[in-house]
Amino acid sequence: MTSAYPLAWPTSWPRAVRRAPARFRVSGMGAAITQTLAELRRLGARDVVISTNVEVRLDGLPRAGQRIPPDPGVAVYFNLRGRPAVLACDAWDRPEHNLLAIARHVEAMRGQIRWGVGTVEQAFTGYLALPPASTAERPWWVVMGFDDAGQTPEVVRECYRLLALERHPDRPGGTAEAFAELGRAYREGMRACGGEARP
Cα separation of 115 and 16, whole Å? Predict the structure, then answer.
């Protein structure tokens, strides 16, 4: 198992607009990691990478005493029978709850397989098409030039307006790709900060 910081959200996965407190309990990020790895091991997953905004120690485990990150999303990348797969969740307001939700999702999928409803390949058909690692999206705050995600909606909006002038394809040095990336980062940043994405 490897931990990746900061969060590398899969490009094809939509983000939650609102996050709720979880309806289940877990005693910290370490316990959620243990449960998730156990479920993935039972499934036959290999080369597991857990990507979050929870800072990690040198051994890859989460550092103690951290605040809940503004973006509590979790993405779990792994190989399943030689094919890359990803599961991601940001429906809950704490990273450990999102990771435990992934563990329970894997448990439910294993149940389908165990009960003869389908195969591993059928269960993971929608989770196998991944972009190459080099095209993974950068976190919104990195795209906008911030050190972290702890910004106010006003600061994010003003930064977007200034950067849009630089990165617009009609401006010298601007490109359609850079402008599109900035637009995505602005929308994600406003959602993460509790603001409304408007020009």
Answer: 31
pTM of the model: 0.62
Residue 154 is which amino acid?
Answer: E
Q: Which secondary structure element, helix H or strand E, spans residue 179, and what is its range?
A: helix 176-193
CA distance 93 to 18: 9
State whether 116 and 173 are in the same domain: no
CB 103 within 8 A of CB 41: no
- The predicted-structure confidence for 54-107, as pLDDT tens digits, reads as follows 988 877 778 778 888 999 999 999 998 888 889 999 999 999 999 999 999 999
Q: Is residue 13 part of a domain?
A: yes
Closest alpha carbon to 148 in 193, 180, 178: 193
- Alpha helix stretches (DSSP H) within 12-136: 29-43, 95-114, 120-123
Specify the residue for token string 């080369």: 47
Same structural domain, 36 and 128: yes
In the block, tokens 């906008």 appear at 144
Number of domains in the chain: 2
Q: Could you tell me if 93 and 164 lie in one domain?
A: no
